[in-house]
Amino acid sequence: MLELSNINVSFNKGTVDEMPLFSDFNFSVKKGDFVSIVGSNGSGKTTLLNLICGTLMPDGGKIIFEGKDITRLAEYKRARQIGRVFQDPKIGTCSELTVLENFALADNKNKPFSLTGAINKKRIPYYKELLSQCNMGLEDRMNNFPSQLSGGEQQRVSIARALAKNPKLLLCDEPTGALDYNTGKNILRLLQDTCRQKGV
Q: What is the DSSP letter of 121?
């Protein structure tokens, strides 16, 4: 499903401070895999995710996704099939929009703007279904703003929002890092269960 082949990445390239991070790095993920990457700060975990979703381009090597070379494909085009959850739940949601509006924003990503309403009312039951899997009653709080939710609730909304477009791959950058131990454990269970059910 995903293959990184002979990836090279250096920071401050061409300067005295040049620092190679990846040198002929190879990595692959099969469909249905749930992979955890563990490493110290600065070891390249976030950089790896940035390479996969297109935030960062490699200096050399190839990134193959679903049999296609996406090495130079723009981030917004990759976002059609690759979802992302960040460590800070505030990054995964827009604070000035309600939970419902956040889902509509995700649904309308990569679509041309028009004068029609942004919220597709036919999709609301689907959003509620995604939120109900969080087992926190969030499906009844769709008119709340993220700031009215706890950190754990915001992260659950962020995960559900990332899954709303049915991505084939979901990248999570330390999704439990800003949460307490028990909430973090529940978030990981939610991720595993949801990804398994959806085949992500």
A: G
